Amino acid sequence: MALSAAARDLPGFAAGEIAWNLVHPVVLSYVIALAAFLDPRGRWTVLVGSASSLGTAAGPLTGSVLADRAGFPGTGQALAAGLLLIAVPMTAVALRTGRRPGPVAGLPVLEVPVQTPAVAARHAYDPAPPNR
């Protein structure tokens, strides 16, 4: 984000965005893991994945409009400010929840009885015959 915020032209801004996109999978994995830790039933994990998908869908249009109206320095600064606004409370939550044991204990376990094991049918996945 610092590269994008300091950019004065398109190549500098693009370099910052490429650097962010290299780090983004690690950050997203951390956020999804934090959501799973906070809510073992998976509700927050689904919301994090949905928010990520929404950002992927709406991000290019939003970024293009922002770059057109505020320029590359303004866009980088807006992205950096948004990242800080999100990172500070998430860090506080992660630090606070790290002090207590995981909430998984006490959840009921659902056991599903299986009548017979699944067996693949013979020749069900043979290659297709050649075209004639």
UniProtKB/TrEMBL annotation:
Matching InterPro entries: MFS_trans_sf
Keywords: Membrane, Transmembrane, Transmembrane helix
Superkingdom to which the source organism belongs: Bacteria
Membrane-spanning intervals of the chain: 18-38, 45-66, 78-95
Protein known as: MFS transporter
Keyword Transmembrane: yes
